[in-house]
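Workshop exercise sheet. Pairs work together: one partner reads the sequence aloud, the other fills in the structure field after running the prediction. Swap roles for the next sheet.
Pair: D.N. / O.F.
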Amino acid sequence: MDVRPKVSRIEVVVNIASGSVSTQAPDEMRALLSELGLTANVRAPEGGDLTRALREAVDAAPDLLVILAGDGTARTAAELAGPDGPLIAPLPGGTMNMLPHAVYGEVPWQDALRATLETGRERTIGGGRIDGRDFLVAAILGSPALWAPAREAVREGKLTLAARRAQRAWRRAFSGRLRYALDGGPRGKAEALAFLCPLASKAMSGDEQALEAAVIDPKTIMEAARIGLNALVSDWRIDASVQTQHCRTAGVWAAGRIPAVLDGEPARLASAAKVEWRPKVARILAPPAVEGAA
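Structure field:
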């Protein structure tokens, strides 16, 4: 949708406890907006009550909701805003920044915001939904997701806890496989599954109406390590232990609860989960050049 919307009422939510957000970020945000002739209500909640701040920002019915936080907060904002709510601008303020990098490229949040406010166009984005939770970039199910809690502990500086979680993840790796069916097809077994949205998929254009499903099934630790190496030097999807196809729905089953990572954030799913493509999750504001490249 090539629309240059009018943006006058702006709400901003800044997570100063996030991975790459400084305590000066709220003032920097106000200064940048003032330079562009705009004002905003900037919320920087303390104590981690981000969901309440996001809900209040959405309820204020702004023209634009700017998020400077991690992927999980951006995903929550998209869920709260929905396809009929305010435009959102998910800026890179976390550790991985999967969604902002997919939308704006790997640029500082100041550059992303400036370009968005000067040349931004409205764009509806789709995503996946699993167990009532949306993801806009990627969902990983199975043993690779077991490492997410260890990563979170490292990010929080809790190295002893990170070591314990890493040991637990290593012990549980290859201990239980997933069963799955894509688009109602035959059931298969795999060590892990990944579902990539068009924003993140290298094999899909940004306007395709489906997910890219990757069936990840290494048989040994060495094969798993090879997938990791491919992820570092090229594309993990090309590994012989990975098979991909497009799908709109999927069923996933396991003997126990399914470990997952949704847009970089750890989650725990039930033993049976349904994954589905949603064509309209939220509306974002993005520069047209970046939009065409997504």
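Discussion prompt: Residues 225-233, 290-294 have pLDDT under 50 and may be disordered. What would you look at next?
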